[in-house]
């Protein structure tokens, strides 16, 4: 297998992350990690525009986003997003989301992507990183705990996807 690199993605790479998300969307979600049912189509145009706007938004403004890509052979095969809140009063926090294509899991890639985002957040002088993880996604929750995230609550029956009731675990990391 080729060597993987992690990069903070730039607007010229938006099509690479969109192709990656489209591949994720087209594969079974096991264990469940997406709050979208199988009947929800992926819209690359909407997602592309959302990334373009959020990547261009300064970190001191609401609704910013930064995305790190796990790149192998010129393709994004995993990504980690940090998103700022919609209110100016919550800009000391970010929300983390991560997804890896199946062939790139269990190799330390998730940890490396999260570590890159955490270091960047520290450099930006953010105070907290928050995330939600489905209770059925035991491996992801274990990774977050190893990175220092602590559980702060569980929302029972937070999502209902394809007839499945999903509890969501809220976790946070003090920077």
Please sum up the structure shown.
This protein is of the alpha+beta class. It has helices at residues 14-25, 44-56, 109-123, 138-146, and strands at residues 5-8, 65-72, 75-84, 93-100, 128-134, 150-161, 164-174. The mean pLDDT is 95.
List the helices and strands and how they pair.
Elements: E1 5-8, H1 14-25, H2 44-56, E2 65-72, E3 75-84, E4 93-100, H3 109-123, E5 128-134, H4 138-146, E6 150-161, E7 164-174
Parallel strand pairs: 4-5
Antiparallel strand pairs: 1-2, 2-3, 3-4, 5-7, 6-7
Helix pairs in contact: 1-2
Task: Tell me what the structure shows.
The protein is α+β, with helices and mostly antiparallel strands and 175 residues long. The chain has one domain (5-127): Gcn5-related N-acetyltransferase (GNAT) (Aminopeptidase). The chain is built from 4 helices and 7 strands, in the order E-H-H-E-E-E-H-E-H-E-E. It has a 7-stranded mixed beta sheet with strand order 1-2-3-4-5-7-6, with helices on both faces. A hairpin with a 2-residue loop joins strand 2 (65-72) and strand 3 (75-84). It is globular. The chain starts with a strand and ends with a strand. The model has no long low-confidence stretch (mean pLDDT 95).
